[in-house]
Amino acid sequence: MTTSTAHATPACPGLGTTVSAQGVTRRYGLRAALSDLTLELGTGVTGLLGRNGAGKTTLLRCLATDLDPTGGRLEILGLNPERAADRTEIRRRLGHLPQNPTLYPHFTAFGLLDYIAVLKELGGRRRRHDEVRRVLGLVGLYDRRFSRVRRLSGGMKQRLALAGALLGEPRLLLLDEPTIGLDPEQRIRFRDLVSEFATTRTVVLSTHQIEDVEALCNRVVVLDEGRLVFTGTPAELIGRAHGHVWSLPERPSAGTTTWRRPDGRYRVLTPDATRPPEGYEESAEPVEPTLEDGYLLLTGAADTARTGDTAGRGTAGPGLT
Ligand SMILES: Nc1ncnc2c1ncn2[C@@H]1O[C@H](COP(=O)(O)OP(=O)(O)OP(=O)(O)O)[C@@H](O)[C@H]1O
């Protein structure tokens, strides 16, 4: 299912709605970081994609009740974040890993999570400590629980911040670029953790790592300049690029998104038409598209790469309707 701007979109069928946004707008001064966003999300992992500045963090911050929309209506976990009592209840039930989490450097890993658990009002001392140990185990930092935060590596700090978001088993988990700095082993561990977590809960994952979206998400939302330009399954986004990807024996003269593969042939993404680039009708071989191809076509980035025109946004790919 695809939408250009403000069309209602169903959540995962049969799995209930966790987040409902109706015409949500968020302005910073005159700039609209989110424009008239209508969207419903349910159980599972939703991948939030978009270029730098597309509005992903702004959307997550609105869902985390950290920012108020300047227009439209949000419903989160059946509650209205405009009402103070509801807002408190939403905050009790959500976990948020922000883009630049604040981690007090002189705390130990355990002490920091315990501090967050106190703020989250997670029961008495014993229950709280059990919960802290549980999430430390989930992110593979149990052995480092007595290390000072400042002595942890970048990837470990990221995992510690994730553990903080997981405290209390939130119903809604908001993750802003969570896999930055993780090594491959930890990234797999992250996928395992999030995919299990999302069998009964809602996860919204903002990322530039398209392979994480392919691996984890049952739903993809693409933002472009604050507008919703796609919502659907990963397979539907890949489907956008069918017939647009080719393998050629040489770099085509008319530029398009391309690179030289290890086998010496050039992988080419043609934004305009589902036919081989002109002059290569005989030698072109069709290539199975990836999610990245669908995304590049949708956001017009394939055209931008071709022209080298980073400001030229008038050449949107065929997915923009
Ligand atoms: N506090 C702020 N004050 C003013 N403008 C802001 C503020 N935060 C974000 N913006 C602007 O809002 C727009 C959306 O920013 P946002 O951080 O939501 O994008 P993003 O998709 O998360 O980007 P990235 O992928 O780079 O993290 C951008 O134009 C940005 O410059």
TrEMBL record:
PROSITE patterns: ABC_TRANSPORTER_1, ABC_TRANSPORTER_2
Pfam families reported for this sequence: ABC_tran
Keyword Nucleotide-binding recorded: yes
Bias-annotated ranges (Low complexity): 299-313
Keyword terms: ATP-binding, Nucleotide-binding, Transport
SUPFAM superfamilies (alphabetical): P-loop containing nucleoside triphosphate hydrolases (SSF52540)
InterPro entries: AAA+_ATPase, ABC_transporter-like_ATP-bd, ABC_transporter-like_CS, P-loop_NTPase
GO molecular function, one term: ATP binding
Entry keyword Ribosomal protein: no
Recorded superkingdom: Bacteria
Domain ABC transporter: residue ranges: 19-250
Region (Disordered) location: 270-289, 297-321
Family, similarity comment: Belongs to the ABC transporter superfamily.
Name of the protein: ABC-2 type transport system ATP-binding protein
Source organism per UniProt: Nocardiopsis mwathae
